[in-house]
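ok so for the tutorial part 2 we go from a plain amino acid sequence to predicted structure tokens. step 1 is just haveing the sequence, like this:
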Amino acid sequence: MSTEPKTTTIRVSFVTRDEIAKLAEQEGKSMTAVVDDAIREHRRKLRWRQVAEQMERTRREDPESWAEYLAEQELWLGGPSPAQRIAPEWEGLIAPPEEGHADQAG
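step 2 — the prediction. this is what the tokens look like for a chain of 106 residues:
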């Protein structure tokens, strides 16, 4: 008995086939490995999208559970991230920067 996985053929456009071939060559992988990686990545993105949707649903529909989740998260993570903290002498005088909106002057 062969230990090789069974294979089949799927139809893709020439453009897609060429893109897969280019990625395979760049990464030193087979075209099948590139497709397998793409499928795994797509599944990962779907799973995290579902998690985000469930979290948003919980926040919206069950504020009490959402508050419990945030309290537990703070216990695990140790409070706000350093990017969101401000020096103690400034507390109450200025608001901490919003996540993703830090001053980008440069």
